[in-house]
Amino acid sequence: MAQQHLAQIAIVVRDYDEAIAFYTQKLGFALIEDTPLSDTKRWVVVAPHQQKGAHILLAKAVGAEQHSAIGNQTGGRVFLFLHTNDFDAYHQQLVQHNVTIVREPSQQAYGQVLVFEDLYGNKWDLIGN
Predict the structure, then answer these.
(1) Residue 18 CA: distances (Å) to CA of 7, 23, 77, 114, 118
(2) Is 60:41 a contact under the CB 8 Å cutoff?
(3) What DSSP state is assigned to residue 77?
(4) pLDDT of 51 strictly over 80
(5) Which of 3, 21, 92, 100 has the fewest CB atoms within 10 Å of its CB?
(6) Residue 12 near residue 59, CB atoms below 8 Å
(7) Per-residue pLDDT for 29 more than 90?
(8) What is the residue-averaged pLDDT of the chain?
(9) Is there a contact between 58 and 23 (Cβ–Cβ < 8 Å)?
């Protein structure tokens, strides 16, 4: 069977620059690529530093249907799962950058977990392992 991997996922955003600022400054992600494709469209990719998984394509919403999906890409459920080897430090980083914590840290069978929101309200699990 052919080998496969998930290369990236798209998150619908309102504005490229505000999304870049949130992901790089508040979450500490790296800006992998920011390439203009036209006067209004860019190919913007971010990812956690030292990451081994998929990158995130920041896709600027166009039209009413895409704008309605901003912040609610999964109908209110947790959308993305971010693993860290230093849960306490990353939790403190989120707090220091005023990232909204939806569910405070708790210990689960699979590790420490908390739920936070990105700048648009998409929910993320932060998991310490």
Answers:
(1) 23, 9, 23, 24, 11
(2) yes
(3) S
(4) no
(5) 3
(6) yes
(7) yes
(8) 95
(9) yes
